[in-house]
Design a protein that fits this description.
9-stranded antiparallel sheet; Acetyl/propionyl/methylcrotonyl-CoA carboxylase subunit alpha; alpha+beta; 33% strand
């Protein structure tokens, strides 16, 4: 076994690897960027070395620098985590050339699975079922259109390189093919530097079921399946294991297909073989097809760990250090059911726009496993993925596990940034999901209901008012003037709507709040406030931002009347950056006439591109940013001419 390893990653996965390494007595080395100097993974490591600027290209993608640090600190191996350099075969070769061990598969295995078209051909040869489609090298638009006709609409256009939903387009009619192809190729070129695409049959009621495999370079085993069908724009949201509705026959067929895939490329370490499954008529052994193989540890690996009792990171370290597979196939069993929900800093009402912010409060229930790379006081950076945590639960049955997930999400508390917590809670309570009727289109079909704003009650507003006026820890003499109880008021806003909360403080343990013409009583007994006879929710504050930790977190802003008056005079004609990021492109020019909804610029932030649109018809007065500019949130990018009248 290794004495010391370097983790070439950051955030949640770096912390996850360090926890297992520490439990195994293996010392760890962290690398970090300028943006991560005070991060959790740096604090957890035995040693930490600075490697560059906040942009991944200046730090976590600097393979040569990472290898240099590993050698200088005496690390014997490098664990890549997921993302960044984890599936870069050139990095694997450089690690091995430096006399170090790469904790993962060979460069050859990564290359064989790196291009979807070549991987599918290889899987076909190995007897693994593949989706009908065209995976060849001819990229002529007319030829591809002809292949789409042969396959039969609807079809999917998919970028050969990369993933994450980039370079992917659904085409339902022949007339839409040419435009969709151009769009997919353009996005693929931007994201991966490779415009090539493949064409596949689109499965009408698709489920995304993947098989966890583990190999030692010669033989492999599978650790059963995960269902990752609950997706939004091809991004996984909630994963579970085992898959609902799975039969023993289907599990055996899929598991053996995964093992054949791994053994066909001499796979070593943890990997995932992803299948698309036709869920229109139950799970059938002739209704699943190979999509791709992820040659690394997956984000959702904890659900497999909880149903099998296997620590996959421990297995990674043991096999990489020269041990054979820690278990035989017949030794592996499933116990119970597990769910994982991905908690992100993102603004759901604004189209799931990634968010930043300093976490003023962060708390998870003890009954759930929370894999997180941040703590209260940490900042969600615009440079990296805005994941806050993975909330993972286990239960004896699917129903029990889902109930535990719903409860865990209700009790998770985040302050300082907007999150998708309410969205996750709505999914956990979704009737179809509870029944196991899942497919990749579930979220899109029910998006309006799933993203409905939570109901804000009078007691929530009163709780925010108590914090804003510093009345939670009321002293004995609080609220009394010389002759009568004191009246105070504060103006607050929630979801853009302002309201005034007026309070009459009757003493240290009783307050009468009048809001929106209604009155509610707050009383304290045995040190605990109750509002409207219900326990006051936990509340956290950061400056003027107040978070009431109920209904998955309700945000209120205390408004200074002077600030409000100043803001009222602001320029409504300015298109601003909604978050810090890189200006990728600017389409506006001074004097140009634009229509409402026209795309004026593209901002790249949080590993995604965001189109900035004209809010009204008008004429561009001034362009205030250029492609390549790094801007802060609120920076003016384009200004329209004042409207007449």
């Amino acid at each position: 076994m290794f004495d010391k390893i370097l983790i070439a990653n950051r955030g949640e996965i770096a912390c996850r690897v360090m926890e297992t390494a520490r439990a195994m007595g293996v010392r760890t080395v962290a690398v970090y960027s300028d943006a991560d100097a005070a991060s959790k993974h740096v604090a957890l490591a035995d040693e930490a070395v600075h490697i560059g600027g906040p942009a991944p290209a200046d730090s976590y993608l600097k393979g040569d620098e990472i290898i240099r640090v590993a050698k200088e600190t005496g690390a014997q191996a490098i664990h890549p985590g997921y993302g960044f350099l984890s599936e870069n075969p050139k990095f694997v070769e450089a690690v091995e050339a430096a006399g170090l061990t790469f904790i993962g598969p060979s460069a050859d295995a990564i290359r064989k699975m790196g291009l979807k078209d070549a991987a599918k051909a290889l899987m076909d040869e190995a007897g693994v079922p593949v989706v009908p489609g065209y995976h060849g090298s001819n990229q002529d638009p007319e030829f591809l259109a002809g292949e789409a006709e042969k396959i039969g609409y609807p079809v999917l256009i998919k970028a050969v390189a990369g993933g994450g939903g980039k370079g992917m387009r659904l085409v339902e009619k022949p007339a839409e093919f040419a435009d969709a192809l151009r769009s997919a190729q353009g996005e693929a070129t931007t994201a991966f530097g490779n415009p090539d695409v493949l064409i596949e049959k689109y499965i009408q009621q698709p489920r995304h079921i993947e098989v966890q495999v583990f190999g030692d370079g010669e033989t492999a085993v599978h650790l059963f399946e995960r269902d990752c069908s609950l997706q939004r724009r091809h991004q996984k949201v909630i994963e579970e294991a085992p898959a609902p509705g799975m039969t023993a026959e289907m599990r055996e067929a899929m598991g053996q297909a995964g093992v054949r895939a791994a053994e066909a490329i001499g796979y070593k370490g943890a990997g995932t073989v992803e299948f698309i499954v036709d869920g229109s008529d139950g799970l059938r052994t002739d209704g699943f097809w190979f999509m791709e193989m992820n040659t690394r540890l997956q984000v959702e690996h904890p659900v497999t760990e909880l149903i099998t009792g296997v620590d996959l990171v421990e297995w990674q370290l043991r096999v990489a250090s020269g041990e054979s597979l820690p278990a035989k196939q017949e030794d592996l069993t499933i116990t119970g059911h597990s769910f994982e929900a991905r908690l992100y800093a993102e603004d759901v009402p604004k189209g799931f726009l990634p968010a930043t912010g300093t976490l003023t409060h962060l708390s998870f229930p003890a009954e759930a496993r929370a894999d997180s790379g941040v703590r209260a006081g940490d900042t969600i950076s615009p440079w990296y993925d805005p994941m806050i945590a993975k909330v993972i639960v286990h239960g004896s049955t699917r129903k029990v596990a889902l109930s535990r997930l719903a409860r865990a999400l209700e009790e998770t508390q985040v302050g300082g940034t907007v999150t998708n917590l309410a969205f996750l809670g709505a999914l956990a309570a979704h009737e179809g999901f509870a029944n196991g009727d899942v497919d990749t289109g579930l979220i899109a079909r029910d998006l309006e209901a799933l993203t409905a704003a939570p109901v804000v009650e009078l007691r929530h507003k009163a709780a925010a008012g108590m914090v804003a006026l510093d009345l939670v820890e009321a002293a004995v003499d609080t609220g009394f003037t010389l002759w009568a109880p004191l009246h105070r008021a504060v103006t607050l806003s929630h979801a853009g709507e302002e309201f005034t909360a007026d309070v009459q403080v009757d003493g240290p343990d009783r307050q009468l709040w009048t809001i929106d013409g209604e009155t509610v009583v707050a009383e304290r007994s045995q040190g605990q406030w109750r509002i409207d006879e219900r326990r006051m929710p936990a509340v956290s504050q950061s400056g003027t931002l107040i978070t009431v930790h109920d209904a998955y977190g309700l945000e209120f802003t205390a408004i200074d009347p002077l600030d409000r008056d100043a803001a009222a005079g602001g320029d409504s004609n300015v298109i601003e950056a909604p978050m810090p990021g890189l200006v990728k492109a600017v389409f506006a020019e001074a004097g140009q006439a634009v229509k409402e909804g026209d795309r004026l610029a593209i901002l790249e932030a949080m590993k995604m591109e965001h189109s900035l649109l004209a809010a009204r018809d008008g004429v561009v007065a001034e362009v205030l940013a250029a492609a390549g500019d790094q801007v802060e949130a609120g920076a003016a990018l384009v200004r329209l001419e004042e409207e007449d009248g």
